[in-house]
Amino acid sequence: MYRWKLIYLQAIVITSIISLCGLAGIAISVLATGIQSGFTFDLLTDKPGYLILFAGLLAWIPTTIALLHGLKIIRVLKNNALAHTVLVPSFQIIQRCFNVISIITIGLFPVLFVIADQDDAPGIVPLAFVLILIPVTLSAVSSVLQTLLKKYQTTFQKEQD
């Protein structure tokens, strides 16, 4: 039963990677169309959606890296190996990726504030805070999982001795 759960989780992560690659392709084509029509600073201030799209593409890179390391962790767990040397660096890379995503969303906050001011939509500001806090929370969860893995590894080694 445990193995099937890991296979299901692996399928979800692979599907997420493929979906994100498709969305990135669409975003690149939209940005390319915007560049061909004359990409100026006035266009960016008039249509801040291009900045949001660009920030999404910047966040896509660390997200894909984090998902690939998640696949690596799942593969190690599926083989019933507690390779501490493999898992801890993957968790650290995932934490760094989430921190980079948080920095990107912090940089996106002023753009969302301008959109909220132009459209008279104050609900966008709390949404911006949520977008900043999600990667920070996932980084904290990854840190807790890494700590639990270290404790489990030490107790497992004590039982083996």
Number of strands: 0
Quaternary: single chain
Number of helices: 5
Helical residue percent band: over 70%
What overall form do the CA principal axes indicate? Answer: elongated
Query: Strand content of the residues, in percent?
Result: under 5%
Order of helices and strands: HHHHH
Distance between the termini: 29 Å
Q: Would you identify the regions where 5 or more consecutive residues have pLDDT less than 50?
A: none
Radius of gyration: 20 Å
Main β-sheet description: none
Output mean pLDDT.
82
Class by alpha and beta content? mainly alpha
Structural overview:
It is a single chain. The protein has 161 residues and is mostly helical. It has helices at residues 2-36, 41-46, 49-78, 84-119, 124-160. Helix 1 runs antiparallel to helix 3 (49-78), helix 3 (49-78) runs antiparallel to helix 4 and helix 4 packs antiparallel against helix 5 (124-160).
What labels describe this entry?
161 residues; mainly alpha
SSE diagram, text form:
Elements lengths: L1 H35 L4 H6 L2 H30 L5 H36 L4 H37 L1
